[in-house]
Design a protein that fits this description.
The protein contains ten helices and two strands, in the order αααββααααααα. It is mainly alpha-helical and 192 residues long. It has two domains: 63 residues, Winged helix-like DNA-binding domain superfamily/Winged helix DNA-binding domain (Arc Repressor Mutant, subunit A, Orthogonal Bundle), CATH 1.10.10.10; 88 residues, no CATH class. Helix 1 packs across helix 4, helix 5 packs antiparallel against helix 6 and helix 7 runs antiparallel to helix 8. It is elongated, with a radius of gyration of 19 Å. The two termini are 34 Å apart. The relative contact order is 0.12. The N terminus is likely disordered.
Amino acid sequence: MSKHKKQSSLLPPLQRLIVLHLAKNGPQTINETVKKIKHSYKPSWIAFNSLEDKGIVKKGKTKEYRGNEYPLYWLTEGGVIVALVEGASPIELLTKSKEVYPNNQNLQYALEMAPHLNPEIFRILLITVQSKGKLTTADLARMSLTQMETDNTLEEVRSALETMKKYPKEYERLKKQLSAMQENLDKLATIL
């Protein structure tokens, strides 16, 4: 939808590689990830711990292997947004997020809207998640309004609105915010 420019990475290279790998492949143990990304175990283990400390990945279910249980790691809600900022596919993230966070409609909405958004909005969403710990419907409506203020074509806006309509709660919130904005603009026009 936009004139996307290359963003600088938020993470060191190995951590970025791990986040993008998990975003694409879903929850995995550290050892599974190490084998897939073809990296050494100890630096990867340190990177996982750092990502966990930053709140980007978390332990989920466990996997049993030869009588031992190993935690599966995947992205937190904030980690999903970090993955978007780092360039992960919104479609792959949406698929995996529906499996890991089946009841998180706000996250699913943000991911479905991601192809319609400028990557800078992902950074704004990340700050929101980091400060509040989650995305709210109001945050998502503001995100949508912010995007509409950019230089989009009418067709791009229509496409984004079709996606929004899949999420009635967010769509209604957007309509209310647009109405409130229009009322404020009408009041301002009488003053001018």
